[in-house]
């Protein structure tokens, strides 16, 4: 049995994770963390789930309930808040693990998470679905195979109108994979202006579309002369990410300190 505290519990992802964690016999919801500014703030997870057999306090301050948790699943809508939680978990006398789904960290914040993962096990993954993690692998294989063969690479993503960060954490990860596989270092976000000599071959362009209630879509286009390959993942429901987060919490409980990603959890490496 793994005891989880869910941070950002009133959010779109937090609520979905709470529902799936409740349904999983190997998981016990020990508490929730939520911003006091949240207009729908509830004091107990049972009020979110409408389940009388749950008794798990919700607080704005993780330090008040951290002793109840084996693993903190963090999908808080603030990278600063998540970093505060990682610091708290790393400083705790008892071994605490973290599963971080929040995206939009700065390079400095990522470096601090990397440092803190020397003390505690952390899964950090901008996308916890099995399909997207397979997409990462397919993109890497395709990019390596097509390297220096005259294919232009463009990345397109689309998300719902409320998404805070842009481009998505998943698109950023795809770009990192493409850079590593192709050696191309120049990345541009959107395209404007005049291209007298056509599209430069030594750049990757990323386009972030926003609108409606789109859960998340990512396409990597490899465009050559006379043929085009497109690798696409479309998320139809947030359950795929939440399921991954719950699986990651079960997986990480017995792991040594270190920084892991979803490819580790899913055995795709
Ligand atoms: P959301 O805005 O619906 O939810 C975020 C929640 O965090 C809100 O309830 C907000 O009040 C709360 N929050 C804000 N400050 C907080 C604090 N200091 N402490 C605790 N809670 C706090 O957003 P969402 O759609 O649920 O997404 C949350 C994050 O997860 C985003 O960064 C998003 O990009 C990311 N995401 C990751 C995956 C993945 O698979 N890794 C999938 C979907 C979304």
UniProtKB/TrEMBL annotation:
Record-annotated active site: 159 (proton donor/acceptor), 163 (proton donor)
UniProt: NAD(+) binding residues: 8-13, 34, 101-103, 125-128
Lineage: superkingdom: Bacteria
InterPro entries in UniProt: DapB_C, DapB_N, DapB_N_CS, DHDPR_bac, NAD(P)-bd_dom_sf
EC number in record: 1.17.1.8
Broad EC category: oxidoreductase
Positions contributing to (S)-2,3,4,5-tetrahydrodipicolinate binding: 160, 169-170
Dihydrodipicolinate reductase C-terminal domain: residues covered: 131-266
Residue ranges occupied by any Dihydrodipicolinate reductase N-terminal domain in the UniProt entry: 2-128
Pathway(s): Amino-acid biosynthesis; L-lysine biosynthesis via DAP pathway; (S)-tetrahydrodipicolinate from L-aspartate: step 4/4
Swiss-Prot/TrEMBL keywords: Amino-acid biosynthesis, Cytoplasm, Diaminopimelate biosynthesis, Lysine biosynthesis, NAD, NADP, Oxidoreductase
Listed SUPFAM superfamilies: Glyceraldehyde-3-phosphate dehydrogenase-like, C-terminal domain (SSF55347), NAD(P)-binding Rossmann-fold domains (SSF51735)
Location of this chain's protein in the cell: Cytoplasm
GO terms under biological process: diaminopimelate biosynthetic process; lysine biosynthetic process via diaminopimelate
Gene3D superfamilies linked to this entry: Dihydrodipicolinate Reductase, domain 2, NAD(P)-binding Rossmann-like Domain
MF GO annotations: 4-hydroxy-tetrahydrodipicolinate reductase; NAD binding; NADP binding; oxidoreductase activity, acting on CH or CH2 groups, NAD or NADP as acceptor
NCBIfam families on file: dapB
Similarity remark: Belongs to the DapB family.
PANTHER family assigned: 4-HYDROXY-TETRAHYDRODIPICOLINATE REDUCTASE 1, CHLOROPLASTIC-RELATED, DIHYDRODIPICOLINATE REDUCTASE
Record function comment: Catalyzes the conversion of 4-hydroxy-tetrahydrodipicolinate (HTPA) to tetrahydrodipicolinate.
Subunit (UniProt): Homotetramer.
Name used for this protein in its record: 4-hydroxy-tetrahydrodipicolinate reductase
Organism: Persephonella marina (strain DSM 14350 / EX-H1)
């Amino acid at each position: 049995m793994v005891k989880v505290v869910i941070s950002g519990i009133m959010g779109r992802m937090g609520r979905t994770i709470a529902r799936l964690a409740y349904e999983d016999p190997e998981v016990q919801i020990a508490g929730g963390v939520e911003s006091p500014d949240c207009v729908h703030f509830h004091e107990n997870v049972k009020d979110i789930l409408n389940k009388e057999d749950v008794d798990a306090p919700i607080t704005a301050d993780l330090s008040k309930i951290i002793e109840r948790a084996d693993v903190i699943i963090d999908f808080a809508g603030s990278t600063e808040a998540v970093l505060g939680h990682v610091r708290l978990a790393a400083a705790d006398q008892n071994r605490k693990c973290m599963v971080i789904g929040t995206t939009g960290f700065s390079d400095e914040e990522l470096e601090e998470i990397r440092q803190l993962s020397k003390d505690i096990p952390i899964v950090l993954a901008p996308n916890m679905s099995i399909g997207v993690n397979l997409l990462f692998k397919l993109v890497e294989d395709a990019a390596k195979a097509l390297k220096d063969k005259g294919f232009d690479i463009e990345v397109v993503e689309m998300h719902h109108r409320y998404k805070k960060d842009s481009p998505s954490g998943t698109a950023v990860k795809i770009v990192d994979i493409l850079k590593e596989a192709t050696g191309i270092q120049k990345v541009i976000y959107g395209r404007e202006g005049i291209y007298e000599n056509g599209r430069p071959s030594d750049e990757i362009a990323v386009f972030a579309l926003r609108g409606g209630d789109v859960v998340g879509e990512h396409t990597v286009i490899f465009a050559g002369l006379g043929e085009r390959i497109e690798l696409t993942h479309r998320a139809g429901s947030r359950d795929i990410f939440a399921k991954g987060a719950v699986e990651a919490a079960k997986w990480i409980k017995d792991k040594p300190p270190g920084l892991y990603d979803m490819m580790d959890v899913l055995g795709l490496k």
